[in-house]
């Protein structure tokens, strides 16, 4: 049922993508803002309480509906699974930005590419070259794909599949929403949300990096992962971008830009705190790197689907 649920949700999303600014996501953002306003009194314990309350509010109804659907009919449970996966997956949430940037760069319209990248990431792109635009677009695509697709896959495989998928996506949002805005950054309230998502994403991030290595240049991906992932302030992002860049033969991150400059975007990318003189292997990202990224992501997706299919067969035969 897990494989079929994900497959159907992916097919539905290809036909009718769910945009990132849909009303359901907006309602969750409003609830998170109300939780922050109600509980934030300047202590980490308040953030922990708000996080737990938010998770209970999202996960308990999801699990209850799933239990009722299982009691009614396997088809009802399948329909609920498909709906939840469709709502939590975001394979095409930001693909219009990535595709539009690729088309703009291919046509030589760097001005349009800068504008699209600024809308996507919230960064100041006025002084960026085509290579800088390509690199940041690739970085955002890899991180977004992990957090909106592969991380959801992993948690949907857990016993409380739909509820766990909801947990992952909400935890990822809270880790950003309660830490990124200037009035909350470095405040105690958001520390628990960031730490909780670190552990929730610990295994999925490494599985995504392994998938990139398998479907790309394995040796370079593992070498970059082992030797250069620490150059990013965010460990999970460092692993994903180091492995993804190595798999494609690209040098991601910068040696001069501090990771403290975090863009306030739904798919924020943190550039490397690369003060070392050594640099990861690979070439500088160019316009062609965008097409390489598309190929890498699709191959990784097919690998995940194959593994899910084999796992489903093993469960069915067992």
TrEMBL record:
Signal sequence residues: none
Gene: cobD
Family: Belongs to the CobD/CbiB family.
Name listed for the protein in its UniProt record: Cobalamin biosynthesis protein CobD
Coiled coil regions in record: none
Cellular component terms per the entry's GO annotation: plasma membrane
Pfam families noted in UniProt: CobD_Cbib
Transmembrane spans: 149-168, 296-317
Alphabetized GO MF terms: ABC-type vitamin B12 transporter activity; threonine-phosphate decarboxylase activity
Xref: InterPro entries: Cobalamin_biosynth_CobD/CbiB
Record localization: Cell membrane
Entry annotated with the keyword Transmembrane helix: yes
Swiss-Prot/TrEMBL GO biological process terms: cobalamin biosynthetic process
Record function comment: Converts cobyric acid to cobinamide by the addition of aminopropanol on the F carboxylic group.
Metabolic or biological pathway: Cofactor biosynthesis; adenosylcobalamin biosynthesis
Bilayer topology term: Multi-pass membrane protein
Keywords: Cell membrane, Cobalamin biosynthesis, Membrane, Transmembrane, Transmembrane helix
């Amino acid at each position: 049922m897990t494989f079929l649920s994900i497959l159907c949700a992916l097919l539905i999303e290809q036909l009718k993508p769910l945009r990132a600014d849909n009303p359901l996501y907006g309602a969750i953002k409003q609830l998170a803002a109300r939780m922050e306003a109600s509980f934030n009194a300047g202590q980490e314990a308040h953030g922990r309480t708000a996080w737990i309350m938010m998770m209970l509010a999202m996960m308990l109804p999801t699990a209850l509906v799933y239990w009722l659907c299982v009691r009614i009919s396997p088809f009802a449970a399948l329909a609920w699974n498909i709906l939840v996966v469709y709502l939590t997956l975001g394979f095409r949430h930001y693909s219009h930005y990535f595709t539009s940037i690729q088309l703009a760069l291919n046509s030589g319209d760097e001005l349009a590419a800068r504008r699209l990248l600024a809308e996507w990431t919230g960064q100041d792109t006025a002084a960026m070259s085509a290579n800088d635009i390509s690199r940041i677009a690739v970085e955002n695509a890899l991180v977004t794909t992990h957090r909106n697709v592969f991380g959801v896959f992993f948690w949907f495989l857990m016993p409380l599949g739909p509820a766990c998928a909801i947990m992952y996506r909400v935890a990822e949002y809270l880790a950003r929403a309660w830490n990124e805005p200037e009035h909350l950054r470095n405040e105690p309230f958001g520390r628990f949300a960031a730490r909780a998502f670190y552990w929730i994403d610990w295994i999925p991030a490494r599985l995504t990096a392994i998938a990139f290595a398998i479907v790309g240049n394995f040796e370079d991906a593992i070498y970059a992962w082992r030797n250069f992932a620490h150059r990013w302030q965010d460990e999970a992002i460092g692993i994903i971008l180091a492995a993804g860049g190595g798999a494609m033969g690209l040098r991601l991150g910068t040696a001069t830009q501090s990771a403290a400059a975090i863009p306030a975007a739904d798919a924020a990318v943190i550039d490397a705190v690369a003060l070392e003189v050594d640099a990861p292997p690979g070439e500088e990202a160019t316009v062609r790197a965008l097409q390489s990224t598309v190929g890498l992501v699709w191959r990784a997706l097919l690998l995940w689907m194959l593994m899910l299919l084999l796992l489903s067969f093993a469960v069915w035969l067992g």
